[in-house]
Each structure stands twice: as C-alpha cells, then as structure tokens.
Write a structure and sequence with these properties.
heterodimer, A: 100 residues, mainly alpha, 84% helix, B: 160 residues, 5 helices, elongated
Chain lengths: 100, 160
C-alpha cells in the first residue's frame, strides 16, 4: 500500500532535485554561451548573449519558486530578462542587418 | 533514504530515456502516443489514490508535481548537449558555422520555453507558463532575425 507521506516527500524531493539539476545544466550552457560571446564576431556574440539571457532567466524563475528557494525578486528579474532580452535581440539584429 | 533512492531511480530512468531518444535521432515512442499514455497513467494514479481515501486535490497536486519533476529531468539532457555543442563547434568549421550555432541556440530556447510552459501548468504557476508561452512565440522571430542579420552582414563584407 502506498503511503501518502512517502508520495508527498517523493514529489517534493524529486521536484527540488530536478529543478536544481536543471539550473546547473542551464549554468553550464550559460558558461558556454559566455565563452562563445567573447570569442565570436558581432552577430555571434549577439546570439550567444541571447542564449545566456534565456538560461539566466529560466534559472532565476526556477529559484523564485516557493518549492525551491523562494527568492521573490528573482521572478521580476527573470520576466524582464526573458521578455526584454528577446525583443532587444530582434532590434539589434535588425540594426546589424542594416549595417549601422 | 527510500525517498532519495526513488528520486535517483526516477532521474536515471528519465535521463536514460531522453538520452536514448537523442542517440537514436528520432522518437522511440511517438509523442502522439506517449503523451496521452502518460496523461492516462497520471489520471489512473490520481483515481487510485482517491479510491484509497486520499483527498482528491492533494493526490492531483502530488502526481502533477512528480510529472513536473520528470519534465525538468528530461530538459536537462538537451540543455547539457546544447552547451557541449556551443563549446565544441569552433571557428575552424568555416564561415557557415554560425547557422549551426544558431540552431543550437534555438534548441536551448525551445527547451527552456517548453520546460517553463509545462512545469508552470503542472505546478499551477500560471505566470511561469505565460512567460514561457510568450517566449515560445518570440523564438522563431529571434532566430530568424539573427540568421538574417548574419547573412546580410556577410554579404556586405564580401562586397567590401
């Protein structure tokens, strides 16, 4: 017979560790993106910085969850990074396209 | 101790399944079959818990959180693979390597947005799902703008 307390603690523990491991994977990809942004040319750097804002935003959103670390202000930072980062990438890509 | 062992087993099963899919290059089980089967198994588990006398809301929340953990585990492998790809594909592969890197960046964005959408829906955090959905809508425009700008800046450099 399955005990509810076991199932609850399994769900909490699995969610905590999965979010933590996913954040570590995001950090690894972010480090790779920073490396690429420092060695590439302008458009490559723009693409790498866009990737970095994505992984940083997702990691920040995950640590703002109450199940993880409950850092409240990280949620606003994550929303700003994800939304403004994408729009800024599009705008700067248009500027690079026009050669300005 | 039993909980930690169960989490490790769950993690290894999901990691193994996703890595096997990536190694094969296509889906082991078609998503049109896999997703309904997983939803059916989750609903069956909730019904079983409710039948055993556990409150329906608590049972649903618990099963959905286990599903969210599975989605987060399954997003880890493509994210690490994309990071390795970003490190691996250097400038020695020629001028068109930018498009491969752009593709890898698209994989990262896609995994991040899909994880945000489904985890947000499963743990009933609609702000997470809404931002993920907005980001998912912006993804093609971002990748297209980057590829377009690289193409035209490269053409301009050739003319100069």
């Amino acid at each position: 017979m399955i005990d509810l307390s076991f199932l609850n603690s399994f769900a909490e523990s699995a969610f905590f560790w999965s979010a933590l491991i996913f954040s570590f994977a995001c950090s690894f990809t972010g480090l790779a993106a920073i490396r690429l942004s420092l060695k590439g040319e302008a458009v490559t750097s723009l693409m790498a910085v866009s990737t970095f804002t994505t992984v940083a935003g997702v990691s920040l959103f995950l640590i703002s969850l109450p199940e993880l670390f409950n850092v409240g202000f990280a949620r606003d930072t994550a929303i700003a990074l994800l939304v403004v980062g994408s729009i800024g990438t599009i705008i700067f890509a248009r500027l690079f396209r026009m050669g300005k | 101790m039993l909980v930690e062992i169960s989490v490790v087993v769950y993690m290894l099963v999901v990691f193994g399944f996703v890595a096997w899919n990536i190694k094969k290059g296509s889906f082991l089980i078609d998503p049109s079959i896999l997703v309904p089967v997983l939803i059916f198994i989750g609903a069956l588990a909730v019904a079983l818990l409710a039948f055993m006398g556990i409150d329906f809301g608590i049972a649903t929340t618990t099963i959905m959180k286990i599903g969210a953990a599975g989605i987060l585990f399954s997003g880890t492998i493509p994210m690490v693979a994309a990071g390795i790809g970003l490190l691996r594909f250097g400038d020695e592969y020629g001028i068109n390597i930018f498009y491969a890197r752009n593709h890898i960046g698209g994989v990262v964005d896609c995994v991040a947005s899909l994880v945000m959408i489904f985890v947000g829906l499963l743990i009933v955090r609609l702000d997470l799902a809404a931002v993920g959905f907005f980001f998912f809508m912006l993804l093609p425009f971002t990748s297209n703008a980057l590829a377009n700008s690289y193409y035209y800046s490269y053409q301009r450099r050739i003319k100069q």
